[in-house]
């Protein structure tokens, strides 16, 4: 855990004038979730907002903050002898409270009476939207709202306040993300070392996941590790790598306090890009580095995304895959055949930070609306950047057979796309390059240890380890 004063300061900010004005803030911690029977649970993952305000990383503890009298309480039960026999000695509730700087504790059974008293008195009870059925059931039981309607009663002022708090990272949070990236870069170097023609993808995926366990707190999400990099969230590892394949590895580790890393590299399995792979790789890299250079406070990330789209499109025109003018092609959304996703997202305790609070609330300012244009519609982050934001910059270029077939059949954007040339590129798969970037007062800083991304440097690292 971080120091008690960090959590106390964060909770004090909830009592600020611009936070929800009165009532209770109810922050239930997560419960253990059974995989197939109770004794065999999924790895426990605490709720990220609970972690942010209380830091307690164990199931079955809830937090309550009274906005009117400033009382803060943790509700839970001390471990039983049975718990100790099966799981070893565990901290008491009081010990957790001290580590979190929380002055009061109470048995878990008292929470429902305290919430019911507030409800009966007509006081607002602020809670966040549930993302697990179990949470909806519990919030429903505590507040008297039908579980199916709990989401509709989630507190908009609390959601807005939590986003405002969590989206600007403090120095200790940056340190955590850097720690996650230490592991993440180790994972990627392992992947570069382990990839080889004739080897199954799953051996690489398994080894990089092992690094996440051995050197960090496990994976921050299920990695993509595939020669079919055009499948955007490909979680299949069943193919065998061939000499002329590109392997796309999108993977991240987790820090001691559960902050995430999220990095992608794409490299030739045999250590040498073909000329065609290299042209496309250089195009993605140019889009990525230009975008990172464009990151600075005040700039809407939507502009950074469109800048990356224009750079990629210029390259694709140079390769005869597309026709200009660049501005017109990007305005029409023609480039999205090759780059159908957004440039990046905020990150922190969650890989897609706070996505459970609503993608648009997190990623868009009040005066911005999400485009419904194909490609731009998946842009998670559009809002003007502020110092302390941590975000990913992850352009890609993909040859997705089903999408190409559909667009070609519809002759969609055929003034801008040379479908005959595109056909020659099928089988190239996908290329993405992703780094995690801190917005500073002056511009941007890539977080984490260096991990090669220039084509020649990537070839050298992959080649060296053969
Ligand atoms: N790893 C998922 C993403 O890059 O957004
Ligand atoms: Mn990623
Ligand atoms: Mn990402």
Tell me what the structure shows.
The protein has 466 residues and is of the alpha+beta class. The chain is built from 16 helices and 13 strands. The strands form four sheets. The protein has a five-stranded mixed sheet with strand order 4-3-2-1-5, with helices on both faces. Strands 6-7-8 form a three-stranded antiparallel sheet. Strand 12 and strand 13 form a beta hairpin. Glycine binds next to loops.
Count of individual beta strands: 13
What's the helix count?
16
User: What Rg, in angstroms, do the CA atoms define?
Assistant: 24 Å
Question: Ions, cofactors, ligands: which are bound?
Answer: glycine, manganese (II) ion
C-alpha geometry? globular
Give the fraction of residues assigned to helices: 25-40%
Strand order in the largest sheet: 4-3-2-1-5
Amino-to-carboxy terminus distance: 41 Å
Low-pLDDT segments:
none
Biggest sheet details = 5 strands, mixed
What is the SS-derived class? alpha+beta
Strand content: 5-15%
- Secondary-structure element pattern, one letter each: HEHEEHHEHEHHHHEEEHHHHEEHHEEEH
Q: Please, what is the average pLDDT?
A: 96
Helix-strand layout with pairing:
Elements: H1 4-14, E1 24-28, H2 48-54, E2 62-66, E3 72-75, H3 81-87, H4 93-99, E4 104-106, H5 110-120, E5 125-126, H6 133-143, H7 156-166, H8 171-194, H9 201-215, E6 224-226, E7 246-251, E8 263-268, H10 275-294, H11 301-318, H12 326-332, H13 359-363, E9 390-393, E10 396-398, H14 401-410, H15 419-425, E11 430-432, E12 435-439, E13 444-446, H16 455-464
Bound molecules: glycine and manganese (II) ion (2 copies).
Residues 221, 250, 262, 345, 351, 394, 434 line the site of glycine (GLY).
């Amino acid at each position: 855990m971080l120091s008690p004063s960090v959590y106390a300061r964060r909770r004090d900010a909830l009592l600020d004038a611009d936070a929800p004005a009165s009532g209770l803030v109810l922050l239930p911690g997560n419960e253990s979730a059974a995989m197939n029977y109770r004794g065999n649970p999924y790895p426990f993952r605490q709720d990220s907002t609970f972690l942010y305000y209380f830091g307690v990383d164990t199931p079955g503890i809830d937090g309550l903050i009274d906005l009117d009298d400033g009382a803060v309480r943790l509700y839970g039960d001390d471990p039983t002898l049975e718990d100790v026999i099966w799981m070893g000695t565990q901290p008491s509730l009081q010990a957790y409270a001290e580590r979190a700087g929380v002055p009061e504790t109470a048995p878990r059974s008292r929470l429902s009476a305290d919430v019911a008293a507030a409800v009966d008195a007509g006081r607002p009870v602020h809670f966040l939207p549930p993302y697990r059925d179990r949470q909806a059931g519990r919030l429903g039981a505590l507040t008297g709202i039908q579980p199916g309607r709990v989401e509709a009663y989630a507190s908009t002022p609390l959601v807005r306040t939590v986003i405002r708090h969590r989206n600007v990272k403090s120095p200790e949070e940056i340190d955590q993300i850097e720690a996650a990236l230490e592991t993440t870069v180790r994972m990627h170097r392992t992947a570069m070392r382990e990839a080889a023609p004739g080897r199954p993808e799953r051996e690489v995926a398994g080894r990089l996941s092992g690094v996440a366990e051995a050197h960090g707190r496990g994976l921050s999400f299920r990695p993509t590790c595939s020669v079919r990099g055009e499948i955007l969230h490909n979680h299949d590892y069943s193919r065998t790598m061939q000499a002329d394949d590109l392997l796309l590895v999108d993977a991240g580790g987790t820090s001691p306090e559960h902050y995430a890393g999220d990095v992608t590299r794409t490299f030739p399995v045999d250590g040498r890009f073909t000329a065609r792979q290299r042209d496309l790789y250089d195009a993605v890299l140019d889009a990525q580095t230009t975008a990172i250079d464009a990151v600075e406070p005040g700039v809407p990330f939507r502009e950074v995304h469109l800048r990356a789209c224009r750079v990629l499109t210029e390259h694709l025109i140079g390769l005869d895959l597309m026709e200009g003018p660049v501005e017109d092609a990007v305005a029409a959304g023609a480039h999205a055949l090759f780059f159908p996703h957004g440039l990046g997202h905020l990150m922190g305790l969650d890989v897609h930070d706070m996505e459970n609070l609503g993608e648009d609330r997190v990623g868009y300012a009040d005066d911005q609306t999400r485009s419904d244009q194909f490609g731009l519609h998946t842009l998670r982050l559009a809002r003007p950047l502020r110092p302390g934001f941590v975000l990913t910059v992850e352009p890609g270029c993909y040859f997705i057979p089903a999408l190409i077939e559909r667009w070609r059949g519809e002759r969609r954007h055929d003034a801008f796309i040379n479908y005959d040339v595109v056909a020659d590129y099928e089988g190239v798969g996908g290329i993405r390059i992703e780094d995690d970037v801190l917005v500073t007062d002056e511009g941007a800083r890539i977080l984490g240890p260096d991990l090669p991304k220039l084509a020649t440097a990537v070839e050298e690292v992959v080649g060296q380890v053969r």
